[in-house]
Inverse folding.
């Protein structure tokens, strides 16, 4: 195994003060008096990433994962230790970071390519390919200043340049979650294509999903320490369990990945909500494992929806939907459809959906709750999108959306 | 799609990276690079050399952005010395009657040099902060940013030299060709000195932002401490009166360059020869004598450039988080 990236005892110390003394006056006034607080973003990290491997760096905010990526990229210098890399490298830390608003798209492609380490001849050779990838909208505006570009066009051109250099090492920092869905898919395809070509990929993320989808191995960082390096299920499990065990964050919600904000296409505008009946809260419970911040595939789940009404009402239709990270409805139903009428409601009532077993695989899922009239479904009392959600962690050796009971044999 | 090897990008890799650990097993591979706090000056220079195309592109960007929406564009670069010329001519030749014939040409000799120096220093000092987005998100040898300011300054210098050429033609002035060969040497020295200061100042300004304001004041004082408007020889008697050696003014590193330009382009060290008391402007040094301070300067600024790059490397470690 040849290593593409060797991280050798990398330590990074940041100096942080309550205030920064940027001006001469401040420096003189505080000379020798205020010792800046030292903060160790990375504490002696050793890591080897093999050529052609796709590696994930997991960690919460402030874990040091982005700092490590920046050290690998050469943007930050480690305080001690070194990073050795072998191969053409492209770092997607911020798409279009090198763009100057006053230059045209064409000029920026050239400048950005040079910044990424290409020479002018190869930029010229790849120019058409880059424009082609960025799409027709960008192509038609290539000779206009990029300050007139939409943010989508900006990002598309930035990504197109970054991947055009045919990197042997690609560093990605959460940037795959930008742009519209179609472009995201295009980016993901390109990343997978690079993977197929033997490109080494390092992805920094806090989304277990991405690690599961792309990575061969992953490392978990916490406060500058390397907690574990292993295969994605191991790393993801350690990531969640470690955070929980060390009691970081006050609530379970903090430990979960941010619930994905997905606008359901059928979500009615707020003006149409009468709020005669309101959803007061939605509780997600993991029966049997109440302390754990995530669910394992196959475990039960409870969603308790507490309603509140100002006047007694003969009954409501309470709907629940589960969407995946890309906004696809995974499961939805309502009390009327299920034949479980809520009955009359006065003041408050709690409707609990109990799932005996959730067969979903890894991912973040968002919950959608709708409360409508039993007589007329178009009378909407309240509708909540993505207020809460849950995470599933799977150890099953399957990929996709659901864990279907399977038995394989040779027949 | 894999490209042929010759179209491969130049990594900022050191071409002569020592074989360290597993990564550098293959000594032929030029794409090995090491990110470490201990990076020598020679390595850093090699990185900059590998990024020379980027340097040129950044110079072009600098110039393009500066005059992006102006109608006159580069003409502004020439109007600046032209305006100086008119004002100083009015003040010193007409109002104060300093008695220097062809004062515009005298003045332009010094201004050419000074404008380059001051434009480079003031634009280089703020360049790191102005390009914060790049510095924080992209990995490249950051020295190219101050060096691009030097490059842009050189373009401005050429444009202003055209003004000089115009003035020489307009006045049908004869330059002293026996000193002409000193001019390129003086320019090499000037570029080296400016580069060294540009690299050091750009890095220091990230930490102490007051530097760019302080620099304005320093440059203003420095301008008047340099024999640009007044002739060098008017200072020498004052120096001797105060018990200072006559060469004390050469301590100002810009003075030797200005003197070479004046001696060559203005041409005559002594004017108003028909007067009972001719006006001595410049020392009666031969080309060889004038070469000496230039050579000393070139040596000193080469050392200074090395020190500046070393300092830059030390300060660079925390650029991304200081901005």
């Amino acid at each position: 195994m040849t290593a593409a990236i060797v991280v050798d005892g990398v330590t990074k110390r940041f100096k942080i003060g309550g205030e920064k003394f940027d001006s001469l006056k401040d420096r003189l006034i505080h000379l020798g008096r205020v010792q800046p607080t030292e903060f160790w973003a990375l504490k002696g990290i050793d890591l080897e990433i093999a050529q052609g491997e796709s590696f994930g760096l997991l960690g919460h905010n402030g874990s040091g994962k982005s700092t490590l990526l920046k050290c690998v990229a050469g943007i930050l210098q480690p305080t001690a230790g070194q990073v050795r890399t072998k191969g053409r490298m492209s770092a997607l830390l911020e798409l279009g970071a090198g763009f100057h608003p006053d230059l045209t798209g064409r000029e920026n492609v050239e400048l950005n390519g040079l910044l990424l380490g290409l020479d002018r001849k190869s930029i010229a050779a790849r120019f058409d390919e880059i424009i082609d990838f960025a799409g027709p909208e960008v192509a038609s505006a290539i000779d206009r200043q990029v300050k007139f570009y939409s943010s989508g066009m900006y990002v598309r051109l930035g990504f197109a340049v970054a991947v055009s250099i045919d990197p042997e090492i690609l560093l990605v920092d959460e940037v795959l979650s930008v742009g519209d869905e179609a472009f995201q898919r295009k980016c993901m395809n390109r990343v997978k294509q690079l993977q197929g070509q033997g490109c080494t990929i390092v992805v920094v993320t806090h989304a277990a999903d991405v690690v599961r989808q792309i990575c061969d191995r992953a490392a978990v960082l916490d406060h500058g320490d390397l907690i574990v390096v292993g295969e994605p299920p191991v790393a993801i499990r350690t990531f969640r369990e470690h955070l929980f065990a060390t009691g970081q964050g006050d609530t379970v919600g903090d430990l979960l990945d941010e619930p994905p904000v997905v606008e359901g296409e059928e979500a009615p505008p707020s003006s149409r909500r009468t709020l005669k009946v309101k959803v007061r809260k939605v509780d997600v419970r993991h029966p049997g494992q109440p302390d754990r911040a995530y669910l394992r595939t196959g475990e039960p789940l409870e969603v308790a929806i507490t309603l509140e009404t100002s006047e007694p009402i003969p009954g409501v239709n309470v709907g629940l939907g589960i969407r995946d990270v890309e906004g696809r409805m995974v499961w939805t139903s309502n009390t009327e459809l299920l034949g479980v009428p809520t009955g009359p409601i006065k003041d408050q009532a709690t409707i609990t959906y109990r799932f005996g077993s959730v067969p979903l695989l890894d991912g973040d899922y968002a919950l959608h709750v709708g409360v409508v009239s039993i007589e007329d479904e178009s009378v909407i009392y309240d509708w909540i999108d993505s207020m809460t959600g849950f995470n599933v962690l799977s150890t099953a050796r399957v990929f996709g959306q659901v864990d279907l009971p399977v038995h394989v044999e040779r027949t | 799609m894999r490209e042929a090897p010759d179209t491969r990008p130049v990594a900022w890799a050191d071409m002569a990276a020592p074989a360290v650990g597993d990564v550098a097993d293959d000594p032929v591979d030029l794409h090995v690079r090491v990110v470490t706090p201990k990076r020598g000056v020679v390595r850093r220079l090699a990185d900059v050399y590998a990024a020379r195309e980027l340097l040129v592109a950044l110079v072009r960007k600098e110039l393009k952005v500066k005059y992006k929406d102006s109608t006159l564009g580069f003409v502004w670069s020439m109007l600046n010395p032209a305006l100086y010329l008119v004002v100083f001519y009015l003040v010193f030749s007409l109002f104060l009657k300093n008695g220097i014939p062809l004062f515009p040409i005298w003045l332009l000799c010094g201004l050419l040099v000074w404008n380059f120096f001051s434009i480079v220093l003031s634009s280089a000092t703020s360049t790191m902060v102005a390009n914060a987005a790049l510095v924080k998100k992209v990995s490249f040898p950051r020295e190219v940013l101050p060096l691009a300011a030097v490059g842009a300054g050189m373009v401005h210098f050429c444009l202003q030299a055209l003004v000089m050429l115009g003035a020489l033609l307009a006045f049908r002035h004869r330059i002293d060709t026996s000193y002409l060969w000193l001019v390129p040497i003086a320019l090499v020295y000037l570029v080296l000195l400016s580069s060294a200061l540009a690299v050091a100042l750009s890095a220091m300004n990230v930490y102490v932002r007051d530097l760019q304001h302080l620099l304005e004041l320093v440059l203003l004082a420095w301008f008047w401490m340099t024999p640009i408007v007044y002739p060098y020889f008017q200072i020498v008697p004052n120096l001797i009166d105060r018990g200072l050696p006559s060469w004390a003014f050469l301590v100002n590193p810009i003075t030797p360059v200005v003197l070479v330009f004046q001696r060559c382009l203005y041409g005559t060290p002594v004017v108003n020869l028909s007067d009972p008391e001719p006006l001595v402007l410049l020392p009666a040094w031969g080309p060889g004598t004038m070469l000496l301070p230039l050579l000393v300067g070139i040596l000193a600024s080469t050392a200074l450039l090395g020190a500046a790059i070393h300092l830059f490397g030390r300060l660079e470690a925390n650029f991304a988080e200081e901005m």
